[in-house]
Amino acid sequence: MERRAYRLGRRQASVDQTASSILAAASELVAGGASQLNVGAVARKAGVSRLTIYNRFGSRAGLLEALAPHRRLSPPPPGDARDALRQHLQQACSAWAANPALYRNLPAADREDNEACRALAERLAAADALRPGCSLKEAEDVLTALTTFAVFDRLHKDGRRSAAAVGEILMRLASEFLA
Fold this sequence. Notes:
By secondary structure, the protein is an all-alpha fold. It has helices at residues 12-31, 39-46, 50-57, 60-67, 81-98, 100-105, 114-126, 136-146, 149-156, 163-174. It folds into two domains: 9-67, Arc Repressor Mutant, subunit A, CATH 1.10.10; 81-177, no CATH class. Helix 5 (81-98) packs antiparallel against helix 10 (163-174) and helix 7 (114-126) crosses helix 8.
């Protein structure tokens, strides 16, 4: 569904404030350990109607995406496949380190977008960068496992390791399937 762009003029500040209130309420509920982010609970906490949330974010999934925009990792950048792998791992670690409590409590936080991992595995295979005997599926599966919040969280240990240090550990682990 394509949304029509409206010019709100002076109302824009009010619309932005409402969206901020909704996101703050949702973030507070999730960080507080809400096992399921309920649109009704967010609406009550933000002082808006459920319809306002649906109009602004489209769905519960849209609200979650706005709450944690880095939840879905972007496709790896063009260039050297190994550099793209390193950048992909660092991007994930930086996003998670910004608010681990939020990601820890987000529903299904470990189900990252497999498309980026698949694309990265394909690039590594095309560059002949996979070790002999490593299938494309194996590389994709290992990348998917390495780019879960649960793995990051275990290695990050609430900040005892920096996001960059965790990224380097993940890169060393990933190197096991590289040529």
